[in-house]
């Protein structure tokens, strides 16, 4: 399995005991190292990390059992299998060897073919263990991603439902506002007409002027216009939020085309330059990017959200680094900042719609959720790395061609 030779460390204070064994193992293509006592064995293990240790029990200084215990205390050496070489095979001694962390023992005088068989067994076991834990890590990561994807899918459904429900009332309130404006304007006109018609009859005109003043008609006329403007503005904001929720939840039917992402990044940087200029220096480390099949305007929106967030995270003055590169059939775009960073609880929630840690008026909590939706629909993903007080990196991974998506 491994192309390089495997290393075995033999620890024994009597060289005569092991000469034959060393020759034999070297003949079998092992790399063999020798240590004379426990201290030396520990030092060599730290340095070389052998694949297996053959350990004499009775040695001057720290004995084999203690040596083994210490090996098992360090994370770097805990996984190295230890086979004891011992002359004492009564039950107590054997149990002590296993308790110290040994995986096996061979009896002295050593029978080299038996040693070889046991070495093979334990190296194979160790390799299996290594593969298992690697697969376990992969599984764990896949599981985490799945959980996150499921959470986002259910939030997406919720968002789509809310957007749909809000759309309808917004529609008729907007329509009614238009009618109201027409009606009220007509009424103001009628008041003016009345006043003109009454000009000839003095007492009526005076009475009308009185009534108008008492009802503050001039003020109402003036205030009405700004109330209308404000309401329209409010409605527009609600519409924008609903649109963002829809963007998060739904596929857009805009067409994909091959695009140069560096151009997209540069033009987006231009748009947000006023937000960034006094906050951060921008460092570009662009790699080689092929054209990517995408909806460029949507990806620009993602870049914009990431860049604005990076600027927001920087309190006084910092650096925003934009790096890009290609990995096989994928490209990646990383936007990093030297800002405040995030704690684990925040990282867990940043892609949820309306999750924000910013004051009202500054944060809507929609930027990253919309970005998540866009990147997902492109068949990609956003990875986040962040350290409190140091900064954050957001990495967008995208397939170059849509069929390469997972
Ligand atoms: N670069 C960053 N550094 C630190 N925190 C960030 C960064 N980007 C996003 N966040 C966190 O994620 C939250 C959600 O971001 P986002 O969805 O863009 O909404 P908003 O920016 O409106 O708060 C932010 O409020 C902030 O807490
Ligand atoms: Mg934002």
UniProtKB/TrEMBL annotation:
4-aspartylphosphate sites (modified residues): 56
A Pfam family reported for this protein in Swiss-Prot or TrEMBL? HATPase_c
Is Ribosomal protein included in the keywords of this UniProt record? no
Q: Which residues form the Histidine kinase domain?
A: 161-402
Q: Extract the GO molecular function terms from the UniProt entry.
A: phosphorelay sensor kinase activity
EC identifiers of the protein: 2.7.13.3
Gene3D superfamilies per UniProt: 1.10.287.130, 3.40.50.2300, Histidine kinase-like ATPase, C-terminal domain
Q: Which residues form a coiled coil?
A: 125-152
Does the record's keyword annotation contain Coiled coil? yes
InterPro entries per UniProt: CheY-like_superfamily, HATPase_C_sf, HATPase_dom, His_kinase_dom, HisK_dim/P_sf, Sig_transdc_His_kin-like_C, Sig_transdc_resp-reg_receiver
- Where does the signal peptide begin and end? none
User: What PANTHER family does this protein's entry cite?
Assistant: HISTIDINE KINASE, SENSOR HISTIDINE KINASE
Could you identify this protein by its name? histidine kinase
Could you read off the lineage of the organism from its UniProt record?
A: Bacteria, Pseudomonadati, Pseudomonadota, Betaproteobacteria, Burkholderiales
